[in-house]
Predict the 3D structure of the following.
Amino acid sequence: MKSDGLNMKRRTFLKAALATGAAVGAGMPIPRFAEAAEEIVEDAEKKVFTFCGVCSANCGMIAYVKNGRLVHIEGNPYDFVSGNPYNPEDGGRICVKGYNAVKTLYDPDRLKYPLRRTNPNKGINEDPGFERISWEEALEETASRLKESINQHGPESFLLMTRSNDFANRLRDVIGTPNHVCHQSTCFTTQQAAWAGMVTGSGRPWTHDLENAKYILTMGFDGMGKAKNPHLQGLSKALQRGAKLVSLDPYRSKTAARAHKWLPIRPGYDLAFALAMIHVIVTERLYNREFVANYTEGINELRSHVVSRGYTPEWAAETIDTPGITADVIKEIAREFADPANQPAHIPHHKRDGAGPNHVNSTNLAQAQLTLDALVGTIDRPGGMTLPRNPSMPGFDGLFPIPEELQEQMPEIRRERIDNWEERGPFMSFPHGNFATLPYGILNETPYPVKTALVRGYNPLSFPDHLTMVEAFTKLDFIVNCEIYPSEMSWLSDIVLPEPIWLEISGMGPRSYHSLYPQIHVRNPVVPQLHEEARGFGGIILALAEAMGYGEYFRDTSEGGSGNISGGKFNNLRLQALGSSWNDLVNSPTGLWEPEDPADREFVPREEFGTPSGKIEFYSTLFEENGYDPLPTWKPRREDPDEEYPFYMVISRAPMHKMTQTQNNVLALAGYPENSAVMNKAKAAEMGISEGDEVYVEARSAGWMDRERKIKLKAKLIEGVRPDTVMIYHGFGRYSKYLTQGYDRGANEGDLIMSMDFNEMRRLNDPGMGAAMQDHAVKIYKA
Amino acid sequence: MAIADHAMLVDQSLCINCDACTLVCKQIYSTTDDIYRTQIDTYEHGTYHESIEVFNKKACMHCQEALCVITCPTGAMHKNDDDLTVFDERTCISCNYCIANCPYGVITFDRSKGIMEKCSLCDKRVENGLEPFCYTVCSPQAIKYGSRPAMIAEGNQRVQMLKTQGFEEANLYGVDEFGGLRVLLVLQYTPDKYNLPAETEVPMSKRVLKYLISPLGGIAAVAAIGALIYNYTSNKKGNA
């Protein structure tokens, strides 16, 4: 039973006072033990509801504030993502990255005011020589540089790089550029394509009901070790309930370490394993007859396909060619997966796992995984992935329509994009875009030149072919960067605009990543903004629009509205449409809005799906129409190791680090200070490499961009990785000197990954147009 | 108020080495640089695809018969009202006997502050009826907290489940070790795989030493020596 706060006891206070007094008397430093004890027994001044901004799971949080200072964060027990509204006594929990965020808030290296570069040269080794400028100056210069360039080179010469944001989207459309490029091709577009083709017609779900699964098979999915808290908690709960966990992974991830069985699958060959499982289940007729009969189409085509192609366990075992992965093992796992006693059985996939976008066959793997889940009946059913149950709210354009006379003045937007993304099929959302083809487009000015950019939150370190992307960025005439800390993007930019961190702002968020019924969580400022000059992104866009002469497009045209649009107004109107209000949400005792009617808080499985037939299509008619493989089909990797480049490379993240955002956080660094080339012990011994030795990891120079691709790392030797594979954690190799803690640790594996020209993207004919981040071979040698 | 006869249960089969406990504890207690009150150690056994990896949460086990308390000459390391092993810096003489005698290696000397750093099981929170922080924050809920009998029951249940899943060596560690630990561990394999000590009893020599070096224990020391002599002579009779 938790009490609401801690009462300081007189006895404890005296003890502490005595300790400090005695110590001071003796000329000793005051023991911190006494001080720290004091801190945790005093009442927290207040507890504030907010939700995390480290990743897009947006876990509900309760922040503990004392003397105006954030001291600790915990999960919200009523929130689906961090707790369980069906069972709040369980308590709320977040992940280590959320807990660490306290140190990001107070990071002294955070951006405090607008900056302008004084060094005209841009590059990895060029210190921008930032000087402080006022907001007026920053906005004026940005507006005039952008307008000048757009007038000269056309609206399409302006590149917007930010996760979809209503304010930025509107400015984009008012300027009239098609070039809104995001990161999703390196993230999850392959899975999205499979879901769109087989189940939804568009879009993909995020919720995994893992805690109710009894048999969980993962393929490169490290739900316990990286990224998402709800996956971590779900897997743990499943294990506690006696679920069996089998993990296919080239290295022993955290999930694999906890699994009942770890199979070191050859990277990119999970597809063969999955196809063979399908073969066993359909030929031995082990599938859930009822679900397949009622909710799927194409079982006969599927059966003919896997039989005629010969996707037998024997074929798979030979293809995968790995100790421990025999035909018998594959059969055993297939039969276990389909066994009624093990239901629900589920193959979770999220982002950057086997199903992509790590390999050119990732979309095929996603199709195979969905096929397997459908065969046992865990699509939108307990224990499997469930389709979104988000609150239905009006959109930005619906609430704040642009007046017709202004709409008529908006330019027509060109179809061709700088990353060739217009070639995408109907499965891809706008504006995902493709990081893999962007450097090619910019450097070759194909189909036209791009000259300016506004980049928010993205970091060149996370691009495939990082050095080529840096070249592309430095080719631009002008970059304005909105950020919270001086990243490598800031390092290459002309003007840098500071934003407050999510702990300092208001907002609201639906529980898109994990909810069985709609919920909206409130975000309250936990502390007053530390840096007075930081401005919210919506406000920045508004001010920029004014300065560019587009202010009229951002007036509050809602019923009874006046002045400008604001995030606050938007949130209030959306809540009103649900019968609530911003006031209600802020005053909610649980920090949440939920449907009032208990019937709306029950999970009702869908009976119909978004495909043309209304069923889950093993044979995707949408894929067929668009020239893609309608059934899950074997496809090899883009490149396998050979004598010259004998290693596979896999990339992951340390649990306490989030992409490129935490490497200046002292607490996260305490947990993991520097990345390494993680290699198999025996293999390293063979090569004469010892623990801690510096090694080069080098990739072939291939594809359209000929350049040296090599990085230097210290070797870390373990048993838990394939001898032919090296594993590297992402997020290091920092070159922004303004990151005093994170600067120059380890190296960036992005230097090794190839980008693509437009021809290659088309040739691969991947409905997900994934960036194939791990589909190349490397060599390793001592430095 | 604290739960009477309380204990923590760490389920090492659920720990994922995320360091949430490690880093939150460090954040809250502001330990110096490389010093931690709790840490996760990792061990691999076997080779390649036949290897296993285990994680051990290394922090004070709050032994009911604590060697650090027994060997501390000044009582700086002592038991509080909740039977937690806690440290009073005011009487510490930095002799480091506690560190030398701790079988789990969970005490660190912070030279810069002149104190011993170790987990106190958040004694101030426990005193006020709250749970230790690592329980509150553990993301996979590998850490449980409650009454010792309840933790032992839950631990045994979990061990049974692990055994049915093929972990034949699964065991509950801490029931009897060092008089019974207030931090119990669910292990999938034998304790040595987690680098847990083979010795689990307080040596008689340490008990005697305590009484010899503690001025307050003089009488007890005499009694202890007397008991030893009696023991020795009884054995001799027995052998005759």
